[in-house]
Amino acid sequence: MTTEKLLNNGYFPKELPPCFFTNLLGANFNTISADLVNNESARLAAFENMANVLTTKDEIREEKLRLKQVFKNRLKYSECAQYSIPKPGLARNIIKIPNPLHQGKLADAIATNYSDIEKLFEKSNLSTTKPKLETEISQGKRSVKHDNFGLFKELCIVN
Fold first, then answer.
1. Which end of the chain has less Cβ packing within 10 Å, N or C?
2. Which residues pair with 71 in a beta bridge?
3. Comparing C-alpha atoms, which of 113, 39, 50, 109 is closest to residue 74?
4. Each residue of 67-77: b (16+ CB within 10 Å) or e?
């Protein structure tokens, strides 16, 4: 399990057509992440310089504090982009796509700790299905596959 594989296969919802892909994000995530961290202090200084056009010292201090907080939160928090996809009939399916930086950080944490995560999967007595790594190259649409949904329904009925 690698960060690149998680970002390449499985970042976008499966409902999106194949013309949407994340191969470039997966291949360049480490560089992108490093650039963001390296440029953080320069961007913060630029935000603080914007506050210097204010007139009183209290205004400047308050605006600098506000801008620092906005800047810090920008790299640590984000909301998903939301899209509505038509379903048969009049219904719509709402899908959400997370910020690429934060999804990359999550993928990196999963890839780094996957052996520990896998041990937790194996210990679980409550879950009827356990995620498995996708090994078939031809399938390759998702990083992780789950058991057949029909099998899941059968197990629910039996249990």
1. C
2. none
3. 39
4. beeebeeeeee
